[in-house]
Fold:
Amino acid sequence: MPNGVIVPTDYKYGFSKPESYVFKAKKGLSKSVVEQISSMKNEPGWMREQRLKALEIFFSKKMPKWGADLYAINFDDIYYYIKPIDRQAKSWDELPKEIRETYDAIGIPEAEKKFLAGVTAQYESEAIYHSFKKQWEDKGVIFLDFDSGLRQYPELVKQYFGRAVPAADNKFAALNSAVWSGGSFIYVPKGVSVDIPLQAYFRINAANMGQFERTLIIVDEGAYVSYIEGCSAPVYTVDSLHAAVVEIFVKKGARCRYTTIQNWSSNVYNLVTKRAFVEEEGTMEWVDGNIGSRTSMKYPSCYLVGQRARGEILSLSMAGYGQHQDVGGKLMFLAPDTSGEIISKSVSHSSGRTSYRGLVKVIKGAERVKCNVRCDALILDEKSRSDTYPTMQVGEDNVRISHEASVSKIDADQLFYLMSRGLSEIEATSLIVNGFIEPVVRELPLEYAVELNRLIQLNMEDAIG
Structure:
């Protein structure tokens, strides 16, 4: 890939550690690399076959011509698999010193101390540490990294793998299906409510690295789970690629909340496919925060396949110099009496670009659907840009669907008033921006809301200087 854009030097997670790995595949994508990944993981034959079929699909599909500009990606200049340690650690003390220091700086051990139900840490291609509270294991809850899930529950993984996001869905889903490594596997039994969030943190350390985690969540009837993921990477002058796939199955009367705080550095292409199938009276909630990356294309979706199913998508994006956040959501109403909402908030500054891209589809026979879409954009300077690309496909008359959109700038009177009360321009602007994105932030756990506010403050410092 060519040199990336110049990024702010105070990016919080922009440090890197010396590379020290057990194994590092050669650059480039080929059948031999895919077979090597599968062999090193000692996978069943059916998974290897799925990988190889997905590789053929990837090579056959053209790059998308819509959305963000992806033509600078050089697939031959990427490492598709890096194994940082021999085996997954059971305690922080077992991790190599440089990896432990990385996660100490990010704050993972501290997060675990705050009584999170479970923590998985992924470094490069592998989950390197995993902890899960015994109280949930005793209730039958499964929370593993995806590789362990495949080893321990191969039939369950085989039943659901690729059902929500088949390899042929898009070029980057095919890429993930061919070279996936790491990620999370979660199963919540009937009637069990995991009332403390499960957490995963994904870290890219190496230059020219591709990270391709796979996440599968199954929430059985009447169950509940909340899952939170965070992402970061060092700043390099070459670009990295993150192409994940998330598949979620929400059974009858169940509920799942999936929260992302994405703060990749500005040399990362973030191209993710996230999809949930929601059965009768189930609820799926996506809370999606996109702060970092050079380019993001991500549209969490809900396929509402059962009566009275509900889907909610809260999307936040912020784009500064050299960034394009092309994000949004999809609601597919495939049964009567289903409902959903998309709320999108975007902030662009310092020549950055944000785009909302959404799809609402109601099939014939899906009567009494209720859906509301609201897109609000805040532009902080004349060189920044915001676009909205909503698509509505309604095949039924007896529905209630609304769409609202607004574009605004910082109110000069508000800014003057706050500065007259003793705030600096940066502090005043940050306060206004935090008020603008409040509908998303209030849905975050406290520690994540605080972290997001800090990231907003850093972005405002870069914007105003």
Observations:
- The first strand starts at residue 23 and ends at 24.
- The chain has two domains: 23-298, 412-465.
